């Protein structure tokens, strides 16, 4: 298997296939857990791709599901082996949102609503450093340096010459006006947003204050979509101590509709650029 196998996506695909086999057998996760003398939560984590899975786990589950085709068993065991490889982000140690990075690395498109700050993929180095240090005052300088490096490394998905990530961002006006780092840092950051928004695969809209209450009032979220039809879309909601991943079609559809409302309420692309440029000039005074 190629060295660029994404372990996060492999785990997710394998988990989906194991769930399919369980449902074909007509068994609940609780029944499977009882047969294998493990917790129900372990079966759930294996199926949703949030936990690494061993070849032995696959073998045992295939036994419970009475999978007779050895080619299927061997294919699933190979997927389990591939899923235990490490992505580039593992070289940086314990990254709190490593599952998300794995999904973002393999996504075809990403839609983001950001109410407070400029979203990570659009951040300059100085802005990223100020955000990370301000948001993690208890972390060591070394830890924060590592987080900044990871954030900037992620941006290769939108700067790639071939097959870049299709990015659509809705920024609340508050993210333009919150002074992060310094006025100079903000001016350079907003100029960077304007430059990136000229790229054909990057769309930036601004949700102005005058809109008032809106469909994204409850906070930040992202919607990831994948080229492979086998990979369902994911809604990602970042938390302080844990993150939330929603994959059920009903949940994804609800957030998708919310995002369409946000896009409709936001300034159009040209109006958004004009507002970003105007605020950037205010920081230059």
TrEMBL record:
It holds the Pfam family HTH_31. SMART domains: HTH_XRE. InterPro entries: Cro/C1-type_HTH, DUF5753, Lambda_DNA-bd_dom_sf. It comes from Streptomyces pratens. Residues 18-72 form the HTH cro/C1-type domain. It comes from the Bacteria. This is Helix-turn-helix domain-containing protein. SUPFAM superfamilies: lambda repressor-like DNA-binding domains.
